Amino acid sequence: MENKLMKAAFEVIVNNTSDLVFIKDQDLIYRAASVPFVKMTGKTLMSEVVGHNDSEIFCDQELANRYVSDDKRLLSGGKDLIDYIEPITDDNGNARYGMTSKYILRDSDGKAIGILGITKDVTTEYLARQRYQQELRYLFELPKDTYAVCYIDVDDWRIICQHRRHISEGTLQKSDTVEEVSSYALESIADKKSDASEFYRSFTPQSLHSIYSKGRRTLSFKYERIMTDGSLRWIQNEINFLTDIDSGHLCVMLSARDINEIELEQKKLVEAAKLDAMTMLFNRETSMKSIKSVLKNESDRQHALFMLDIDNFKKLNDTFGHRAGDEFLIKLAAELKSRFRESDIVGRIGGDEFFALMRNVSERVQIERKADDILELIRTLSAEYTDINLGGSIGISIYPKVGRELDELYSRADIALYKAKRNGKNSYVFA
Fold first, then answer.
1. FRET partner for 39 with CA separation of 20 to 30 A, picked from 26, 51, 252, 357?
2. Would the pTM of this model clear 0.70, i.e. be above it?
3. What is the CB neighbour count within 10 angstroms for residue 379?
4. 292 near 406, Cβ under 8 Å?
5. Whether residue 143 has a cis bond before it, omega within 30° of 0
């Protein structure tokens, strides 16, 4: 009776849990699995998992071999694996993070007879903790181009920590209260009608919570700031929203970066540049020159080169005419430019091909989010052309990991782009 009750309870759990749960016997054959686990493997029926081993279930044999090797080591070591963070995939094949525990099942004599595995999806918590730790490192290891950083607890409305660097043109004022932070910022912004001025004018716990509740996690403003010696200098404020992992309070990290030389050089470049006549983005020649300059002058940073090609664009021209195609490209170009930061470089290669350099990216997840954002943008813009099936293919190369010269980055991103097309289009591939 007790065994039947336990079996019934287990069946209820595996059929209703949101966790990835499985049981393997000592020969590493699956004997039970939860519905989410079955979906994670890419199967639809429980019978396609139960009674099979990893090499029969997973198309990726390298992954299957890793699972087998891990489980053999677990059984031979005789010690449970607790709370191991590993990459997983969801029902749609998207990358996630799971916290996995594996327990050795034993009979009444203590002999190992199988494994119980439980994986909880902790993507949100994992990325939040990673980002939190990254931002805290940034607070205490101030980059050389950053004047100041201030960490504020929004719920307690107090400054937790701040760090400043002296600069020859005059320092940024030290603040003792949050009110002083916004007051000093407002006083120093040269253009009182700018977005930065508007932001600091309504800098309150309520306004910050409102921004956060709408899904915004970062804000960025650039403006000319009046330094303490009266000089003007271009500054970029970056505002990052964080949740304190201990108190649970909403916090913001304010940083002030020096972009004066970049901005002045950019303005000279814009004034002298030959823009693409239709989209008003940088043309290929100007974009290449700008990107080479960034790679030379910011060689100690990580950058991402995006190559974008519109899938089935010729069909749009053939069906609706070249005017409709041109209008689509103009809309896309304007939206692309707005989706990247002003310090990034966005250009048109020609036809329906674009490229962009995303400067100073510290984490791969930032690049993946940007690629997802671009693909979603194309889906939105192409919604009215339902019969065309427009999409986007993106190739991405990382500096300096993939190469230190633009020609190599360009070539590798182009190869990755066409791999994305061969994989079914409407996707991105890293070189």
1. 26
2. no
3. 13
4. yes
5. no
